[in-house]
Amino acid sequence: MKCIFVRHGQTDWNNNRMTQGQSDTELNDTGIQQAERVATALEKESIAKCYYSPLKRAKLTAKIITEHLDIQANEDSSLIEINFGLWEGLTLKQISERYESEFKNWLYAPHKVVIEGGEDLNKAYERADLFISDAINRDEGDILIVSHGLLIKALIIATLGLDLKDLQKFGVDNASISVIEIKGDRRYLSRLNDTSHLDR
Questions:
Q1: What residues make up the domain containing 54?
Q2: Rounded to an integer, what distance in angstroms lies between the CA atom of residue 50 and that of residue 34?
Q3: Residue of 183, 127, 130, 116 lying closest to 150 (CA atoms)
Q4: Sheet holding 186-194, edge to edge
Q5: Tens digit of each residue's pLDDT (9 = 90 or more) over 121-145
Q6: For 108-119, how does the pLDDT look when each residue is reduced to its tens digit (9 = 90+)?
Q7: Digit-coded pLDDT (tens) for 35-55
Q8: Domain presence at residue 93
Q9: Number of separate domains in the chain
Q10: Mapping DSSP to helix (H, G, I), strand (E, B) and coil, where does residue 9 land?
Q11: 72: CATH
């Protein structure tokens, strides 16, 4: 079984380095093109089913991919991005200036940060862990998961049994592909943040 994780394509907020969280932003033209390239890159995969976040940017990314591959798509609210509360709509520079100590902790100890008005990262991890555990137990074959940067990180950490404090030790870029392969009790990361298909 493979769990194939795809982050949604680019939005204008991504392009301007603004924190989106659960703000329901849409793909821009670049993001649509990126989703199309992901679809082409996944043509050789034997994907049985797709699950996607209900936010517009993930929903359209999933629609483009699943229509191209002719596979079933299922919306799942547990794949929504973390709520960043008062940080949503702000650039990273603005966050670092207005919430200096919290932002520093976010970079080095994210599991200890509680963002005002936002979702506890541990709660986000719990829903990611529950989703992936249920998906593995169902054993539907290879699945595609279209979600968001931080939530995909949480899914990867949960699947591999890593620690939430390691959240910031790897990146998940727009329209990137990451893959975890599951063979019996063995789970391993075979691709991480692959964006090579975007350069074609």
A1: 2-185
A2: 18
A3: 127
A4: 72-75, 47-52, 142-147, 2-7, 177-183, 186-194
A5: 999 999 999 999 999 999 889 999 9
A6: 999 899 899 999
A7: 999 999 999 999 999 999 999
A8: yes
A9: 1
A10: coil
A11: 3.40.50.1240
